[in-house]
Amino acid sequence: MAGLYPAESNHMLSVDALAQDNVIFLGCHIDGQLAACGAVTILFDDDEQLNYGEIKRVFVPDEFRGRGLSKHIMRALEEELLERDIRIARLETGIRQPEALGLYFRLGYAERAAFGTYDEDPLSVFMEKDLMA
Q1: Comparing C-alpha atoms, which of 73, 132, 131, 78 is closest to residue 100?
Q2: Who contacts 99 (Cβ-Cβ below 8 Å, separation ≥6)?
Q3: Cβ of 80: how many Cβ atoms within 10 Å?
Q4: How do 88-94 and 124-130 pair as beta strands?
Q5: How does pLDDT run across 11-56, given as a tens digit for each residue?
Q6: Which of 10, 90, 129, 132 is the one with CA 20 to 30 A from 51?
Q7: Which residue from 7, 85, 18, 84 is spatially nearest to 56, judged by alpha carbons?
Q8: Which residues 6+ apart lie within 8 Å of 31 measured at CB?
C-alpha cells in the first residue's frame, strides 16, 4: 500500500489494532499456507446510532489470486457481522485498486460519503452494503 498511496491516505491497521476485541480476523489456508486473510472492525456510528462493521484490508498473495478467495473472505466477514446482528458493512479502499473496487461492486457495495474518523480524500473510495438487503 505504501507504494500506491501517501501515508495520509494509507489506513492500514497495526497488528496491535487487529488484536482488539472488536476485530474479527479470518484467514484461509491452502496446503498449510495462508492463502487469504481479512478483518472487520465493529464500530458505532454516533450520528446514525448504529453498529457497523468496517471491512479492513482483504489480502490474497499473488500465488493464490484468481481462485475466488477474496470473495470467500468477504462473504465470511459479512456472515460474522450478521451473526452479531450487525447489518451494515462499510469500507474504504483506494482508487488505484481496480480489482478490489470491482469485487466490492460485484458483492453489492455502493459508494457513499466518508464515515467514522475518515476525511474525504480524492484517493479514497468509501462504500457501504446493507447485509439484509
Answers
A1: 73
A2: none
A3: 15
A4: antiparallel
A5: 566 788 888 999 999 999 999 999 999 999 999 999 889 999 999 9
A6: 10
A7: 18
A8: none
